[in-house]
């Protein structure tokens, strides 16, 4: 009885691994369009069908999104991240905000206790970048800068499991932030994160947890309605 899904060739697996590496290494960041099929054929030195199979495999796994007439875009950095994005794409925005608040509060508390001098330098650099992008008025660039800053706070917790989980939820959280900020950057949606860096630097665990927990509802508080309790 023939197999319905014959095993991929070793060459196809190599191309899939190479394309996955371009994504996971950050060479092709989330939101970017990958090279066209002819460009990948030339770069990799393989047949068009092999490239097409590899792209389709990564699209099936949730890392890529093939958009007819536009190109193929990176939507996640791992298979699990792709699953998370599909699973929670239609979730209640308030629930996403509550999840973000919980994770970031716990991570900030640990970061205040465990951060290194290198972590602090990274946070200061990313904080400055976030503020520069805000001033530029580029909404998508701000979403990326803000997400990168918060990812660094979580990484400073030095809890590998928490950091990996947060990274896998990254595109879900970026979708939430895009919707929360809206089409333009306005003064009423600005959140100053300098105090968070200050309390992490000071090692004040409780203040760090409280500060991080306050952010998710500051962008557009009117968009969320508290449960009535009825």
How is this structure best described in words?
By secondary structure, this protein is mainly alpha-helical. The protein folds into 2 domains: 10-75, Orthogonal Bundle (Arc Repressor Mutant, subunit A), CATH 1.10.10; 81-222, Up-down Bundle (Four Helix Bundle (Hemerythrin (Met), subunit A)). The chain is built from 11 helices and 2 strands, in the order H-H-H-E-E-H-H-H-H-H-H-H-H. It has a two-stranded antiparallel sheet with strand order 1-2. A hairpin with a 3-residue loop joins strand 1 (64-67) and strand 2. The longest helix has 22 residues, at 93-114. Residues 1-6 and 217-230 have low confidence and may be disordered.
Write the topology of this structure.
Blueprint: H1 10-24, H2 37-44, H3 48-60, E1 64-67, E2 71-74, H4 79-88, H5 93-114, H6 117-136, H7 139-155, H8 160-168, H9 170-181, H10 194-202, H11 205-214
Antiparallel strand pairs: 1-2
Helix pairs in contact: 1-3, 5-7, 5-10, 5-11, 6-7, 6-10, 7-9, 10-11
Indicate the low-confidence ranges by residue numbers.
1-6, 217-230
What is the CATH topology assignment of the largest domain?
Answer: Four Helix Bundle (Hemerythrin (Met), subunit A)
Radius of gyration equals 20 Å
Strands, total number? 2
Cα shape: elongated
Strands ordered across the widest β-sheet: 1-2
Secondary-structure content class: mainly alpha
Work out the count of structural domains.
Answer: 2
């Amino acid at each position: 009885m023939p197999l319905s899904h014959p095993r991929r060739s070793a060459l196809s697996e190599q191309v899939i691994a190479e394309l996955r590496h371009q994504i996971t290494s950050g060479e092709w960041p989330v939101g970017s369009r990958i090279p066209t099929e002819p460009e990948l054929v030339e770069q990799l030195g393989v047949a068009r069908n092999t490239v097409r199979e590899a792209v389709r495999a990564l699209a099936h796994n949730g890392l890529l999104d093939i958009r007819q007439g536009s190109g193929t875009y990176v939507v996640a950095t791992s298979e699990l991240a792709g699953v998370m994005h599909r699973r929670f794409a239609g979730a209640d925005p308030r629930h996403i905000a509550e999840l973000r608040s919980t994770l970031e509060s716990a991570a900030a508390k640990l970061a205040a206790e465990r951060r290194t001098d290198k972590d602090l330098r990274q946070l200061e650099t990313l904080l400055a970048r976030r503020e520069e992008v805000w001033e530029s008025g580029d909404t998508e660039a701000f979403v990326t800068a803000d997400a990168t800053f918060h990812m660094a706070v979580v990484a400073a917790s030095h809890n590998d499991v928490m950091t990996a989980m947060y990274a896998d939820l990254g595109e879900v959280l970026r979708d939430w932030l895009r919707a929360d900020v809206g089409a333009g950057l306005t003064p009423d949606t600005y959140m100053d994160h300098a105090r968070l860096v200050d309390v992490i630097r000071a090692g004040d665990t409780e203040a760090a947890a409280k500060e991080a927990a306050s952010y998710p509802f500051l962008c557009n508080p009117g968009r969320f309605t508290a449960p009535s309790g009825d």
